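Example 3.2
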Amino acid sequence: MKITKISPAVKTTGRYNVFVDDKFAFSLDESQLVKIGLRKGDEISEERLDELKTESDFGKNYIRAVDLISRRLRSEKEIREYAFRKNWTKENTEKVVERLHERGFLNDEKFAASFVRSRATLKNYSRRKMELELTKKGIKKEIREKILTENEDFDETTALKKLIAKKRNHYENDQKLIAYLARQGFSYDDIKNSLSD
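Structure, written as tokens:
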């Protein structure tokens, strides 16, 4: 088998389509192409073709993961769940996660800090609710505790008072409001104290 053509991909800038025996076989991004040193006219075996297709899949998976993280930070668990939903191979998933860590794009501590900052300032979450959400996103206990303790933007009493001000008119009586606030993770005593202020 012979590589008969390497041409820029039409839809994806920075990727190149590789043709083997005049048929499209796989695509690689520019850095992969340079690293592998593939050229038109190279003879390749069936085994080498399979290796190159695996490398192609890794490149696509990695770019997709970077795209997700560029829209908002993600936890490692979220990337792994995405990979599972998209049927990435286990090998490619591990390679993608490792590369994201190496490049500093995947960091559960940074993710947790960003999450707590945004929930504290925009959503008025309770500490308990933040801890639960971070747990669901796969953040280890020591990271959760560190971030929740160190975050200066987070004051549960202020969050509770803001939430009361925002939601008070949505409930016909205090009992329903108290039930709502308790579901948000605030303690009954804190709710009663804030309502009586």
